[in-house]
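We examine the record.
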Amino acid sequence: MNINEWRTYLVTAASRSKGRKTPEVVAAALDGGVDVVQLRDKATSARERYETGLRLRELTAEAGVPLVVNDRIDLASAVDADGVHLGQSDLPVAVAREQLGEDAVVGVSASTIEGAEAAEAAGADYLGVGAVYGTESKDVSGDRDGIGVERIAAVAEAVEIPVIGIGGIDADNAAPVVEAGATGVAVLSAITAAEDPEAATAAIREAVTR
């Protein structure tokens, strides 16, 4: 897989899907041209995420799109995902490599240049940098919320691995994130909570590509 071609990155959130099941939202996003899917769904049990992950693996495999799992290396292994996305307080990149294999894709969240450089040095394949415009989907400290496209530019300049912007991004504000140096954008609410997730995905992808 070529991470440098990841333009639109869906992060799932069952709690924001307006009563729809996560596989339904993901199927629509795949039809809209999403490039990668991250199973997050933190409000659900591990068993539910496992069962959802198995279905997402089927959908993404059929579409030829990578599937990564948020935080949980064990769950990523259990559903045969392509990799895992780790936060700063999760297990190290080296552990993910040991458990999932050298070919697994390992992403790491970062909000500072120092964190980004450390993640790259540890062997991360890409960075999720944010929250760019602020976020309501997770609790983050003030210094990591609404970091702006200037921080995206600074991180992209400091590292060699791809940068994915995340946090409050939609079709209207995605372009500046990419213009600042991000490879693509990760989106949660703008797709998951959209009335038409397929159309929302397509609109974001068009904004990023343009």
Notes: DSSP finds nine helices and eight strands in the chain. The beta strands are 8-11, 36-39, 67-70, 83-86, 105-110, 126-130, 163-166, 184-187. The chain has one domain: 3-209. The two ends are 22 Å apart (CA to CA).
